[in-house]
UniProtKB/TrEMBL annotation:
E.C. designation(s): 4.1.1.35
Name of the protein described by the UniProt record: UDP-glucuronate decarboxylase
Domain of life: Bacteria
Coiled-coil region(s): none
Any one Gene Ontology molecular-function term assigned to this protein's record: UDP-glucuronate decarboxylase activity
CDD domains in the record: UGD_SDR_e
């Protein structure tokens, strides 16, 4: 059988680079695409020497052309951390809407199956916990996070429309907070923020009183869930995440213990519309994909801490967002 060709957008980012690794390992020809707005070529530089890897430096919100056959498209390009999408709100809206439309058109012309990276943010500040896929969410469209949440909700809607009206093969993964090596130390997300602060000997900044919850999934588990979803025949949205829920205050305490610092937690104001609770209902992933997370938070955090600790000192000290 001929080698399968897959386009991965956002390839130089955290999740995109891990997806490139996985599909290379599975024997695919991988075409990475990224405009490097929040990504870093160092995440994929080890792939440049391979003959089954190509890279296009391109903004997917502009017309996307890829020569040759394509069997799969994974659309992961998008700013993903709150400070990124608040800094570049229009690009965030464009990559979720125009970018998705361009890639759906490409998928249609190549008869490729397309999987989009949606998010637990489509549930907004949820009023039910845990969140099942049937929950429609509680999003403020004009609040600061609206640029990300609504881009992702539109992304799901247009993807489902291509599925329904054009018969395109599509998959929608709703990703819950994921962590691991290759996150940017200064991307503002809570895990790199806390580890960076611990490494620099600064207090850990807990937003609000720290009673809000999140459920953190290790990257290898997430990638495996996405791999299974892509190869399943399930076209409805699917949650992939780790249901082990924790408050941000407890999480800060865990990081202090892990890093062995004697830092303290300091409370700073809670950002507008910060969701109070978040935990995936993964019944569907278990039943349909036979998937559930395997890596405990203590194992995953250790690997991630070792990664951040090994970064050059200059990078650890650089905290400009
Ligand atoms: P990231 O910022 O590390 O990676 C995103 C990549 O997309 C970057 O390399 C960036 O340069 C690229 N990109 C952004 N706009 C682009 C454009 N217009 N054209 C081409 N490339 C562009 O973020 P991540 O954590 O790897 O997130 C990847 C995807 O997963 C995003 O779509 C995000 O919304 C989704 N997601 C991530 C999480 C998580 O916990 N990491 C949770 C939910 C959803
Ligand atoms: N958070 C925090 N301190 C930080 C960064 C984030 O307390 O330095 C909180 C943030 O308010 C949120 C949680 O940690 O309640 C997760 O934030 P993150 O940006 O990682 O992801 P998201 O809010 O998108 O889930």
């Amino acid at each position: 059988m001929s080698q399968k060709r897959i386009l991965i957008t956002g390839a130089a980012g955290f999740l995109g680079s891990h997806l490139c690794d996985r599909f290379i390992k599975e024997g695919y020809h991988v075409i990475g695409m990224d405009n490097l707005i929040t990504g870093d070529l160092r995440n994929i530089e080890h792939l440049f020497k391979l003959t089954n890897f190509e890279f296009y430096h391109h903004d997917v919100s502009k017309f996307v052309h890829v020569p040759g056959d394509l069997h799969y498209i994974l659309h992961f390009a998008s700013p993903a951390s709150p400070i990124d999408y608040l800094k570049i709100p229009i690009q965030t809206l464009k990559v979720g809407s125009l970018g998705t439309h361009n890639l759906l058109g490409l998928a249609r012309s190549k008869k490729a199956r397309m999987l989009i990276a949606s998010t637990s943010e489509v549930y907004g500040d949820p009023t039910v916990n845990p969140q099942p896929e049937e929950y429609w969410g509680n999003v403020n469209p004009v609040g600061p996070r609206g640029v990300y949440d609504e881009a992702k909700r539109f992304q799901e809607a247009i993807t489902m429309a291509y599925h329904t009206f054009h018969g395109l093969e599509t998959r929608i993964v709703r990703i819950f907070n994921t962590y691991g090596p290759r996150m940017r130390l200064n991307d503002g997300r809570v895990l790199p923020a806390f580890i960076g602060q611990a490494l620099r000997g600064e207090p850990l900044t807990v937003f609000g009183d720290g009673s809000q919850t999140r459920s953190f999934c290790y990257v290898d588990d997430l990638i495996d869930g996405i791999y299974r979803l892509l190869h399943s025949d399930y076209a409805q949205p699917m949650n992939i995440g780790n249901p082990d829920e924790i408050t941000i205050k407890q999480f800060g305490e865990e990081i202090i213990k892990l890093t062995g610092t004697d830092q303290e937690l300091v409370c700073v104001p809670l950002p507008t519309d910060d969701p109070k609770q978040r935990r995936p209902d993964i019944t569907k992933a278990k039943d349909i994909l036979g998937w559930e997370p395997k890596v405990s938070r203590s194992e995953g955090l250790k690997v991630t801490y070792d990664y951040f600790k090994s970064l050059p000192e200059k990078e650890i000290q650089h905290k400009d967002f």
